[in-house]
Amino acid sequence: MGRVVRCLDNGEIKQPMYVAAAEIHLYSSEELSYFLQNFLYLIDESFFDTELMRFLREELKRCDLADLVLSRVSRTGPVALAGELALAIGDMDESEQEQLKKKVVSFQKMSDSGRKRLRADMLLKKKEYDRAAEIYLQLLERIEQRKDRPGDEETGMIYYNLGKIYMTAFEWKKAGNMLVKAYEYLREEAVLQELFELSCISPVKICDESVFSGIHAITLQRWQESLNRKIEQIEKDIAGKDYENTEPAEAENSSQAELLFRDWKRDFRKISKSCCQGDIF
To answer: DSSP letters of 166-190?
Structure first.
């Protein structure tokens, strides 16, 4: 963040604010500001509810912020109001303020479908595959009905991400179909390579071999060698794994938002400790 502020979690918060959309708890005005700056695509009208009012008034003792929200919520869109609230918290320097203002303008111009795709991308990172797939399929339905006309790259990434989700569920044919469609839009060799690797490990035929007809034999050989190395490494990892004494990785039990907040808190404290004295921590 910009300037040094008080401790992020000083023990004074009795009941943190829970943000269901990101599955995180907020413990300070600094964390609220960070959330508003970095998760604009998760904010809608429901964010500005009684829970936010309680947190601002009772926990943060910032009645000025609560009054700002109440005075603007009926006249301002949720993204714009989120930007105003973040600015009013007052923990950003000038460059951060300008960056936030530009981000708000960008998100206001973004279509509803664009914001939904960002939400689906976050769910995918959190490994909430069912919820992510549901949104991606809704977006594809709108595209097929010509209700939305996103660019080729955006459409291709929707197909690509769905392909990755179907891979995790071992739905081989669906995964293959999605990757074929992704390649039609993205035209990236890396996508075709993933399709080739999937076709090699799949127990069923997932695509027509003509998809690879334009690929040089040397390239196919390189892809096969790359896949063999990956398989060898996986087999080594499995053979050397001490499953009885291994704890689940932190990332496996944490949402993407939680991991971002953890890293931000760590970096924030490092910066603050290096340039401050006193009872900040």
So the answer is: HHHTT-HHHHHHHHHHHHHHH--HH
- DSSP 8-state secondary structure symbol assigned to residue 40: G
- How far is 134 from 116, CA to CA, in rounded Å? 11
Rounded-to-integer distance, Cα 256 and Cα 262, Å: 10
Share of the chain above pLDDT 90, in %: 54
Helix 152-168, helix 189-201: angle, nearest 10: 20
Contacts of 35 (CB under 8 A, 6+ apart): 19, 22, 24, 26
8 A C-beta contact, residue 40 and residue 107: yes
Three-state DSSP string of 57-100:
HHHCCCHHHHHHHHHHCCCCCHHHHHHHHHHHHCCCCHHHHHHH
pTM of the model: 0.63
* Distance from chain centroid for Cα 104: 17
- C-alpha dist (Å) from residue 263 to 18, 27, 260, 267: 19, 15, 5, 6
Per-residue model confidence as pLDDT tens digits over 239-263: 776 544 544 555 555 566 666 666 6
The token duo for 191 is 């996508």
